[in-house]
## 1
Amino acid sequence: TGVFEEVTDKMKLACVAAALAALLALATSSVRATTFFKEEFGGDWESRWVTAKGDKGTFKLSAGKFFGDETINQGLQTSQDAKFYAVSAKFDEQFSNEGKELVLQFSVKHEQSIDCGGGYLKLFPSSLTQEEMTGDSPYNIMFGPDICGPGTKRVHVIFEHKGENKLIKKEIRCKDDVDTHVYTLIVRPDNTYEVQIDLEKVEGGSLEEDWDMLPAKEILDPEASKPADWDDKPKIDDPEDSKPADWDAPEFIADPEAEKPDDWDDEMDGDWEAPQVENPEYKGTWTPKQIDNPNYQGLWVHPKVANPEYQPDDTLYKYADNAFIGIDIWQVKSGTIFDNIIITDSYDEAKTHAEETYKKTIDGEIAMRKESEEKERLEREELQKKMEEDQKKAEAEKAASDKEDEDFDDEEEEEVHDEL
């Protein structure tokens, strides 16, 4: 009985511990899951967004030509070609991401088959004056796709660090079709990051390794140099090889078949010389054959030493002052739609938002596009068929007309002949 009671008590304690752990995890999740900004462009969205001064392009509210749900897919669409666009929205409260995730996520659709233009967002500090926002306004993070011709189709991930904008050293290819895509940036407090497109990871790693924010951990040893007698030639001339005696034939010789012209005047034309032709005996420049170098020491590698200027920084991820989100882009051809922006400290929350918006509507959007494309294809084929039929009809009518003219001419010729 005592053993049974002891086992029972242990089981009770284990159950209580598990329940407490679950409650703690739930409480922790609830505390840390904060959405700092969410924009689905419903209601009075114009009261939340401020356009910068100057000759800026105009945004309009649109779900585009193709959509799965017109309300969910309605976003800000660029509407004027060859324009700078500069618009921003202020958060309810300025926030810091210290000690927690920072997740920036939004959808973008280039339904105009964009040739050159940006599709990215910028996270700004509280120092931004919205009406004065320009491409030179300091920002914390710039994230999203950028396309210009066939050579530039990349996802920008740029972090501000000590007054400089640091570009990611990796190449992340963006989507370049006409459908909606969701771009997600996750910055973690352990100085790691992840980039997702359509909720699928496309890149990730270390902030320190993938950006030049800190000096290199190691540098080339300034005291080291390659020894003067270091032999790094894997091959050398064979000392026993020698050039054949008959090798040095000239590259060009006088044409043996050439003859002095009969009308050549030595006094007037000078001494006659036969033209030069390639020498069939010419063998080129002689070089001795190569053999393995018995003294080869391999390539000399410059040793490295610890960089005295390097200092680790576990706060590379941190931005203590985040207050605005902005769209600051140039587009040659307009039509891009920005939508469903969310900034939070919980990836799960961002993922759920994407599932309720993008995942819920993308299949319908693609189906609508394909149906429209099929309709346009059939219309083109019908138009082409009609043009070909009209052309054949015109050719037949012309041939008939030419035949009538020819018959008429023959009749006139017969009449004239009869009269004669």
## 2
Amino acid sequence: MAVQKFLPKSHLSTVIIRDNTSVQRVQEIEVRHLEETQKKTGHFYEHLKKKFTGDQQRKMSRWKKEYDKFGKILDVIGQKTRNLAATSASLTMRQSQEGGRGAAPKTAAAMLRGQ
């Protein structure tokens, strides 16, 4: 009998305890869902980062190949220009040594072609 005096006369405490456990369960579910979402977002971020860096590396290698290709072309053009300038200079020196006699001199480009 003495125990009954200390027990509440309504079921309010039982309702509060059950409500607490259900709220706690909902919070656990929400926390787990947030952790899963965070994990998925982290994996997706890492995937995008790897994809971006891979794309940048492919671009850099493509640009390097194009740069090397055009560099070789420019080197060939530079060599031809230097050869043309040297041939033109030697032709000018020869003409000045000959004193301008004879037929019209060949142009430097014609000499390079062998005409």
